[in-house]
Amino acid sequence: MTTKIAISNMRLDAKLAHGDPLWGKFNGSFINAEIPATRLLDTIYTGHAITTQHSQQWRKAENYLCGQHLALDFDTGDKSSTMAHLMDEKFIERYATLIHTTMSHTPEHPRSRVVFLLDVAITQAKNYTLAATALLWLFGAADRQCKDAARFFYGSPDCEFEFLDNVLPLEIVKKLIINYQETGRTAKRRANRSAYHAPASQLEVSEALRKIPAWGIEYDQWVSVLMALHSQFGEDGYSLAEQWADGKPGEVEQKWRSFDANGNGAGAITIATVFGLAKEHGWNRYATVEREPDE
After folding, report:
1. What is the rounded CA–CA span in Å between residue 173 and residue 130?
2. Are 44 and 155 in contact (CB under 8 A)?
3. Residue 241 has pLDDT above 70, yes or no
4. In sequence order, which residues have a C-beta less than 8 Å from that of residue 119 and are 6 or more positions away?
5. pLDDT digits (tens, 9 = 90+) for 95-107
């Protein structure tokens, strides 16, 4: 498979400073190309930046032609930004093409980038932005600026890398967008429905979780449930998440620590997400729960 991408003909060993006169030359240095994934790795490793394809050989949103890659930067400078940590993520393990350390990486302050190559190019800038935003919603710890359709990514000379050689199907991206958008709609419905105005207790949420099969839903839905528990209960919800999620050793904790104080800044995640999924699997919030008597 080949990928439609644009490659800068300038080799950079360091990021350009704000106001650097080379910015004009840099923005016009991208050449549209169609290359295999191995050449993309070579491009990054030798210090050449990449971006989406543009007309008139000028990088700006109005000139967008298509994009066949999505990328996430993890710049927290701690364990959650290491390649080893990121490769434990199920979505990355299955769909990422490569992971590499970025130009700003140091052993003391790790920074990594995950690159996903799509099987089909996205030909509208607004759809590319939406796809990137949905991916950011899935990974709360990633740099929020990675959603611009004209966004470029610096190369990283002599970087560490892992070549996973996976492809992210556009159909999976579309499902991710639907789930991301539905999260926002669910939050709005929740605000307008008196049925959901009463605060949810951990006992009630636990009953809802019993109806949701952790291994019977999509990965992004699985992450959404963890986000919702984090948003609703904060650290008090961790044990509930750990009991339900049935993840690999350390997986739930890693994902949990990636959420910010609001659950996830890229999308409104509330406990309504849990209730909605539970309802799809037959749960009724207001049904009487029959319990066995204590022995």
Report:
1. 10
2. yes
3. yes
4. 1, 167, 168, 169, 170
5. 999 999 999 999 9
